[in-house]
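Recap from last week: sequence in, structure out.
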Amino acid sequence: MAADLVLVPGLMCDAAVWEPLLPSLSAVATCHIVDHGDADDLALMARRLLDAAPPRFALAGHSMGGRVALEVMRLAPDRVERLALLDTGYRARAGGAAGDEEARKRQALLDVARTQGVRAMAQRWVQDMVHPARLTDAALIERIVAMFERKSADTFARQIRALLERPDATDVLRRVRVPTLVMCGRADGWAPVSQHEEIAALLPAGVAMLRVVDDAGHMSTMERPGAVADVMLEWLAAPAR
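Predicted structure tokens:
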């Protein structure tokens, strides 16, 4: 079991994205939830995490937080006892038209946040972030929207910049030597199952635990916290290599 577990939120997320799991995870580890503050670069987020983290720790990142976790592995792999990558990716932004289209879509959301408010942006964005069956779950949707609303449009702009300038992490994944959970919601349209299968395939033999959470989309930790916590407890208990 891990003595310390660092939990890294994703884009416009805060501790609320991990809180549903804490009753289970806190029984086996001391949990530390990261705040990215005003950082606009994934490597800067990783350096700040390392400055505040215990000397050795387990590390779990959700969405953009998974990319931050990979930057931690690039900078200080010797400090990480085990790694979990949830609903995330590893590639740099595509070149050409595909990359331009990603930037355009992110800018359109930022424009909504600046002109209509972060809440209006979040209400639009959340439509693609959860399992379709959960869109009528008013309490869940409000928790997600309220979480985004706690961040400003300026924070959104900084974090979008960090994501658009993200480095490719293929080389990082190939060098991982610790037990690594790779997990996503089966209905995650932002970071699909196929992408997580690619991540698991890049990891060295015997390292990866690939798991898919049914009835969940991109916000798996908030949609199916019991199922996600069960898998994370399995990962935390896995023997170290």
